[in-house]
Amino acid sequence: VPLSADLAGPPDYVVSVMDSFNELLHKLRDVHDRELEGWQLRVQELSNKKGCDIKRMEELFNRNQHMKEQQRILTENIKTLEN
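The chain above was modelled as a monomer; its predicted structure follows.
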């Protein structure tokens, strides 16, 4: 192989393969980015829902505690009235 052939660059088939590879890599990155964005949105939706669920549980817990206190007071009042 003459020295001048080495300086001419890679053969056409190598350039074609590299172009195809780069095109596929670009498409893969696009698909990956879209999928990642979709999953990030889903995680955000679930996080928001979880926040709402936690808030609702806190409200129900507080209401339950209040009702337990009312029940305790009513029980004491009944005992007092029975005596």
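The chain has two helices and no strands.
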